[in-house]
Amino acid sequence: MSTTIVHLIRHGEVHNPEKILYGRLPGYRLSTRGRNQAARTAASLRGHDVVYLAASPLQRAQETAQPFNLGIVVDEGLIEAGNQLEGLRVRGWRSQLWNPVRWPMLRDPSLPSWGEHYTDIAERMMDSVERARLEAEVHEAVLVSHQLPIVCVQRAVMELPLAHNPGSRQCDLASVTSLVFHDEVITDIYYTEPAREKRHA
Fold first, then answer.
1. 85 and 114 in contact (C-beta within 8 Å)?
2. Measured in whole angstroms, how far is the alpha carbon of residue 73 from the centre of its chain?
3. 167 Cβ partners below 8 Å, 6+ apart?
4. Which residues of the chain have pLDDT under 50?
5. pTM over 0.70
6. What are the tens digits of pLDDT across the range 32-43?
């Protein structure tokens, strides 16, 4: 029985002083803190048998992949979820979601109706995971993606409903979700946060 591991890494913190939902908009780079997070996460996998590295085409994911010092495969399947609300401020009292013109987009959170459907996200992400498993067979692969796409993989693997409360997500910045394959079957899933800052008393 052969063992292959595919690590899904969420990108680091993004420079976003306007606090908007940036989605797939171009030009959103890592902040200084985000670059440090990416470096710590890459360091945590140093010594692992990583032979394949792929990342979403978005700048923040490409920058998070750079510290691995491997050739980066651009995988469109790893891209951020499509969202009709990108470019808007969606949190706090200044949220543009208070505008009734946008309420029809929010009619069905179970899909979600404002963007790419959960099932479509899960399918394209699992296709990317399978490509990585084949490329890295009996070794390890790293895929750099985004929070919601990774959460969809987590929930699909654990056979949980794809629709969920965003507040329940376990996918922090620069976190690692590791899928362990025995031959072609996922037998284990692990979650770690190597970039988490230590809190001082």
1. yes
2. 16
3. none
4. 201
5. yes
6. 999 999 999 999
